Amino acid sequence: MLKRVLLLTLVSILSSACQAQQHPGAEAFAEKAAAEHGLDPAAVTALLGDARFKQSIVDAMTRPAEGKDWYEYRPIFLTDKRIEGGVEFWRENADLIGQAAERFEVDPEVIVAIIGVETFYGRITGGYRVLDALTTLSFYYPAELRDRSEFFSNELMDFLLLGQEEGLPLRDVEGSYAGAMGLGQFMPSSYLEYAVDLDGDGRRDLWHSLADVIGSVANYLHRHGWQPGQPVTTRAGVAEDADMELVSRSNLKPGKTVAELAESGFVPVDPVPSNTPGAVTRLREEAGDSYWLTFQNFYVITRYNRSPLYAMAVYDLSQEILAAYGDA
User: Catalytic site residue 118?
Assistant: First the structure.
């Protein structure tokens, strides 16, 4: 009798595990998908039922690398292996990188550096199912953080549309804990808007086509206003009476000229034309804070990831790669 009870209990547990998972708000999401995009609500419901809540995704969202100080963040990406890997990636794909840089008017070393920071040139593309990541962050966003569930809900919708447009196996696609995909780590909305078919095979493949990956990163930068050959950032000397209200970590869209920033107490260490629009940010170093003037190209990098730490890491890595590539 005891064995029978245990067997029935085991069968019940396994049966429950195999059932579709119910997510709060999933029904309304399916109705919205049908009303706004003509998707089959039953198919959407079934897909979401296959998605699994992942506590590890919630945990990762509450402790992103961008929450570190600069002196802790920089060594993650500025390593000999990542610099050497960038030189090797550039050398092996020089024609594609050159073609994309010329077509989209973007400095080639920055294309390489973004792919290096995002996925170590394709070595680390993420091990989460994108369906699980976007479902978790749409319906279970951490309550202790500023609510971005609507953003991820929109990304989940775009993921469904992307599946139709590019024929992606939505239950199988893997990416980051935030739902970013491919070698360039594009969110679904960015994939839809900025990915390009540079190899001309009729698909935008950000996993297996290096032409599409490189072209898409270049197009993303181009579409956000990259200025080839123009400055990205420079360290600033700070006067005792500098206007600290100009220092920002969130809004780095250039708003004042270098001359105006100098009058406010932030003087560029390197020569920059006085009429160049810029902004000011601060990085926490081990020995104290450093201050930086940032320009349009720095702002463009923050469209990829809003953190000034990320943008500075991309820029520093690009310069190290460029120097090593030139010496190779």
Answer: yes
